[in-house]
Amino acid sequence: MNGCSSSPGTARRAVTAALLTVLAVAGPAQAQKTDTVTIIAGGRVVGEMKELQNGKLELSTSAMHTVYVEWPKVSTVTTNKVFEIDLSDGRRFFGSLRAVAAPDQVAVIAGADTVNVPTQDVVILRRVKPTFWDGLDGSVDSF
User: Fold this and answer.
1) How far is the CA of 55 from the CAs of 24, 38, 73, 84, in angstroms?
2) pLDDT, tens only, 88-105
């Protein structure tokens, strides 16, 4: 023998470890800069929305790094990511945001519910990041 053989259990553990490593690395890779912020003057900025607080939207972009956009200058936003969304009337949603046909409006999508609100009624956005374990789906056989 050449000393290179391994048992099926060892090979299975190696494959499981490799799979878990790939899944652990895949989480940060999903933080793509695909959110779109449309400014009232007509400009658009694509990046990763971090949060809205105190009238400033924090946006991470590839070209400009982190920028802060004054919320009153925002016409609408679109993101597939989940945020805690607080409105000026006290309502709170956990969901994503989409631009709608009406000017200066945004659709709050929370599960099966969609609510259109004036963009400026959104006062706080906090990103809700899933944990590593929330992203796992499947089963593991015993060795």
Assistant:
1) 34, 16, 10, 16
2) 999 999 999 999 999 899
User: What is the value of pTM for the model shown?
Assistant: 0.69
Contact 143, 13 (CB under 8 A): yes
**What is the spatial distance between Cα 59 and Cα 96, in angstroms, rounded to a whole number?**
16
Tell me 136's DSSP state: -
Domains and CATH numbers, the chain: 35-127 (2.30.30)
Q: What is the DSSP letter of 134?
A: G
Which one has a higher pLDDT value, 31 or 38? 38
* Residues in the chain, total: 143
CB–CB of 28/58 below 8 Å? Answer: no
